[in-house]
Specification:
The complex is a heterodimer of chains A (159) and B (306). Chain A is α+β, with helices and mostly antiparallel strands. Helix content of chain A is 42%, strand content 22%. Chain A contains six helices and four strands. In chain A, a hairpin with a 4-residue loop joins strand 1 and strand 2. In chain A, helix 3 packs across helix 4 and helix 4 runs parallel beside helix 6. Chain B has 306 residues and is an all-alpha fold. Chain B has two domains: 176 residues, no CATH class; 109 residues, no CATH class. In chain B, 59% of the residues lie in helices and 0% in strands. In chain B, helix 1 runs antiparallel to helix 3, helix 4 runs antiparallel to helix 5 and helix 5 runs antiparallel to helix 7. Classes of the chains: A alpha+beta (159), B mainly alpha (306). Chains A and B meet through helix 1, strand 1, helix 2, helix 3 and helix 4 of A and helix 4, helix 5, helix 7 and helix 8 of B.
């Protein structure tokens, strides 16, 4: 009985602990799941941050960052990854995502977004610390794609 | 006999199973919007990791939902210790599947790893359901009728060792990528600022405390040194009860700090369940254990669990 317990204990422990610790032998940036090097927060980030976002644009200079759920799901980081990869994959892919977002804006018809005429996917560069102390004006702005929010759909679906 | 195989009472292992399984079930239910609903995800964004690497393309939204539902049910049975010989490993594998799939959309999160590792360690340990479980009630096992045994000690120690290992790995990654400079705090400060700006840009929640703190340099060497001490000093927690308790308190405070300054929640350690194997669970009041035993006996009479 004890021999069986020993075998079970050592085999299970060696397998699970070995697998968990194995990523320590790999490049620390080589992340995975469920075995990970846990590289989050490990590398220094530049002071100047380039951030991609989807903006709702309307008349009279209305501009509002769209929440992650319009882009992918409720996860902010997954939404950012979706934006980055769509833009990196080329104009067609970026336009397809932009149109999906515009359709969601129209379908959900949130009162705060009723004035939205366009959705744009943009990259804005900020000085991170200055941004957080209230200076939100970007140092540089690049618009990757802009698409129209169908006014008919907004009107039809608005309460 | 070595310390790893030292005999222990069955109660602590059973409580760890109950806590980890219950956490997994609740987590699956509360996080259902991101674990069960993939209708808005574009197939072009699918980058499978873990078990999901077996797939060439995403599952249909209905199948992904069904996988989540089955997994939730299995995790509940895992927590109850019902047919544990089967539901233990199956629940662990199902959770590995669901979390792999969730992490397969361009962003690997680090909130699920330890939970999955703990479920795997406990799931392949049938002794985890020898008491305080539906199976124990069906067999007529009580806490008093099951003697101390080596089978009940090592799985708890393994769960603790896995917890410690993941924190050491996070410390090693910081050393490998940024060196000892990481402890000076500048990397942490830049990460905090970077993270807050990115979240603000996508209209997500970010921490106003972190946004305010990054304007000062002086607190960050303290935060950096403490973080490194918690991560690289983790193995000390395996040396004794008091130091384990101290380390668990430091880890919990560390995660509290992360949520306060970066709005990043690691629910598993924050709930305390990830650290349960390091705590003196055997000291919980007898009336509570008796209540759990009676609840399991009642559940064992239900038609599906009989």
């Amino acid at each position: 009985m004890l021999a069986r317990t020993k075998l079970h204990a050592y085999a299970t422990s060696a397998l699970l602990l070995g697998a968990t610790l194995y990523p320590a032998l790999l490049d620390a940036r080589q992340d995975g799941f469920p075995l990970s090097t846990y590289p989050m927060f490990a590398s220094e980030k530049p002071e100047r941050v380039a951030v991609m976002s989807a903006l709702a644009l309307g008349d009279h200079g209305m501009e509002q960052a769209l929440a992650p759920s319009y882009i992918a799901n409720a996860e902010a980081m997954q939404a950012l990854a979706t934006l980055k990869k769509s833009v990196a994959a080329g104009r067609r892919s970026a336009r397809a995502l932009c149109e999906q977002i515009a359709q969601r804006v129209a379908e959900r018809a949130e009162p705060a977004l009723n004035e939205t005429r366009f959705v744009a996917i943009v990259t804005q560069e900020h000085d991170a610390v200055r941004y957080l102390s209230g200076d939100k004006k970007p140092l540089k702005r690049t618009e990757h794609v802009r698409c129209k929010v169908s006014p008919h759909l907004v009107l039809r679906l608005s309460p | 006999m070595n310390a790893f195989l030292a005999p222990a009472a069955a109660t602590k292992l059973a409580l760890v199973r109950l806590l980890v399984g219950s956490f997994a079930t609740l987590y699956l239910l509360v996080r259902a919007p991101v674990l069960a609903d993939f209708r808005a995800m574009s197939a072009a964004r699918f980058e499978p990791v873990g078990l999901a690497a077996l797939l060439d393309a995403p599952m249909s939204a209905q199948l992904a939902f069904a996988a989540w539902a089955v997994c939730t049910l299995l995790c509940a049975l895992f927590a109850l210790g019902a047919r544990f010989t089967w539901t233990g490993p199956l629940a662990a594998l199902a959770l590995l599947w669901v979390t792999s799939y969730r992490n397969s959309w361009g962003m690997v999160f680090h909130t699920d790893n330890l939970l999955v590792l703990h479920m795997l360690a406990l799931g392949v340990t049938p002794a985890a359901a020898d008491v305080l479980s539906v199976d124990a009630a069906r067999r007529g096992n009580t806490r008093d009728s099951v003697a101390e045994d080596p089978r009940y000690g090592w799985p708890v120690r393994l769960v603790s060792a896995l917890t410690v290992a993941t924190y050491v790995l996070a410390g090693v990654a910081k050393l490998k990528i940024s060196g000892l400079d990481w402890a000076s705090g500048e990397v942490l400060r830049s990460t905090m600022a970077h993270d807050a700006v990115r979240k603000a840009a996508v209209g997500s929640i970010y921490s106003p405390i972190g946004a305010w703190l990054v304007q000062f340099q002086w607190p960050f060497p303290v935060f950096g040194a403490l973080t490194m001490a918690v991560e690289l000093g983790a193995p000390l927690a395996l040396l004794g009860r008091r130091i384990a308790l101290l380390w668990a308190a430091m880890v919990w405070s560390f995660h509290l700090g992360v949520i306060a300054t970066m709005a990043i929640a690691f629910p598993y350690p924050l709930s305390g369940v990830a650290l349960a194997s390091l705590l003196p669970l055997e000291r919980i009041p007898v009336w509570m254990l008796s209540f759990l035993e009676r609840a399991c006996a009642q559940l064992a009479r239900l038609p599906g669990l009989r």
